[in-house]
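Follow-up to my post from last week.
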Amino acid sequence: MALSIPKLPREEPLAPGHRLCSGCAAPLVVKLTFKALRPGERMVAVVPTGCLEVATTIYPETAWKCPFIHVAFENAAAVASGIEAGFKVLIRKGKYKGKMPYVVVFGGDGGTFDIGLQALSGMLERGHKVLYICYDNEAYMNTGIQRSGATPYRAWTTTSPVGRKIPGKPQFKKNIVAIAAAHEIPYAATASIAYWADFITKVRKALDAEGPSFIHVLAPCPRGWRYDPRLTITVARLAVETRFAPLYEVEYGRKVRITVKVPRPKPVTEYLKIQGRYAHLLRPEYAKEVEILQRAVNEFYEYLEKLEKLSTT
Amino acid sequence: MAKVIGLTGDEAVAYAVKQCDVDVIAAYPITPQTVMVERLSDYVADGEIDAEFVPVESEHSALSVCVGASLTGARVFTATCSQGLALMHEILYIASALRCPIVMAIANRALSAPINIHCDHSDTLGSRDSGWIQIYTENVQEVYDSIIEAFRISEDKRVLLPTMVCLDGFILSHCMERVETLEDAEVKGFLLPKPEYPYPIDPERPMTYGPVALPDFYFEFKRQQEEAMKNARSVIREVNDAFAKLSGRKYDVIRADFIEDSDVVIMCMGSAVGTMRHAVRELRKEGLKVGLIKVRVYRPFPEEELRKALEDKKVVIAMDRACSPGAMGGPLYEDVCSLLYDAEPKPKVANVVYGLGGRDLTPSDAKGICKYALEILKTGIVKERIKFVGVRE
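User reply:
Got it. Predicted complex:
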């Protein structure tokens, strides 16, 4: 599907003046998602507790131009299931006269990888027609940069500090797309705010899927990742160019395709060195840690290539 | 024409919910509530009810699904108890504050540890501050009737609060009794056409639900919930009257038996009311006068009715099927003490804690409680503020 900018919807889901930090990726995720809607199509946004929710809906103001529902932290997928079920039955019984809206969740990594994982799994298994988008800023940014299951290896956070004995988070990031895809849902993918055409195409595919879909978006956070806010798109692009966050999709848990190929990746240090959260890794004593990271990045991309080959043969 | 059928408490809940033509049911199985979920699944699978049944992966999600569905304007039902209700606890407050008129049946069961599947009220009494209306039932007929009343009360625009209909685990949930049912059309006519939720989710009229409200607004939201509970008092009265007209069965927020000529009154909730009534009747034959008050609607607390019923009484025993370690007494006891603080003359008030984890309240226990009350009347002394009945010390 070829995208043309003039044909994209001009309406924006978020009004200006919301309170998200400058350089925050979350509103871009919402904005790009909205661009995938066709004329007359409607979206209902479900957002668990987190940065996006607290910064856009401080009563009596709201930045949302589409219906917005926040209930709690760990249950966005369940709330979305209920909204989908509600509209389905009300339309069937003639009690709601409008068209079925798309129900889209925008959850942070805490609300998705960690506390919301059970509700997400339930929703995916039950097959609700909901698109779940995780904007992953790789830590609990809303409470002030605490490590999550999405925080990468050796990244600094306030609860995975760079101490004298332990240099940042000792564990690797959870593979959330594999978890979602393991439910054999019609569509799971990763997307990047630096690759807007790929992003919008994937959202469209997800919305057209017959059943649940999941998109993981790396969402650079200037506050938590310690970089200049004007560099958000650069950081997001480097994550792809270094193969740190490859762009791919998985259909029905089986068919894997790398959507943005990176034939000549930049070294991961290019990605690490512009972020303060990795500053310690540039010190000579942690050269081995960088090697470990580089190896993990290489191995995962090669693994994806193998899966892609398997899917096409 | 009313049909009389034999139903267990769980089946009566499911049958009433079916007749109420609910749109969305989300539930997770937990003993002794499970049969409700099974029957409702049957109704949906057989096409006897046009509803979405969402078989969730936990009670937390059950109530979360209900909140989402309720915000679309759907009529919504769930059921749980004990650990399940405890897991829902966080969402209980959100459901009531978002003013979702959800109806939830609770097959009251003790809380772990030790794990136990039998009846006490510590689950729902622990949720008394969550902004839900709570109805405690005495028998299966009342279970059936209360479910229907609950939808009518919750969905009224003056109320828009969720309601728990509580039935004692096993004692009512699994006990088959004779139930006079209403015709489907009668139930339909009794209920509102749909919940009177003023702003259901509609993309053509976008709204924000569940925003952040900081110190400048949070308080006003909470104040409105208090107002809704106040409105619920009169709506419950109206609904009880309307239901009496339809069914011939008249309920009230409390039920008082033999209180006119009694100086002592026992207060109690749930199925134990029947046992206590039996004991009170038996003692009357011996010339011992004891009154009985069943608290049917516990939230909103029936202040006015109770104040009137307890006027001039000399001894009041509040029976709690729950314990609150470290507190002055059980929840009902504390509420009754608060209620009677202004009373002139002030009666002696004592607390009886009984039946935890499904321990039977035997007829002789029941008589013993009455005699305990009479002894306080005679001596004017409450020796132990909390008396534990039926426990091995």
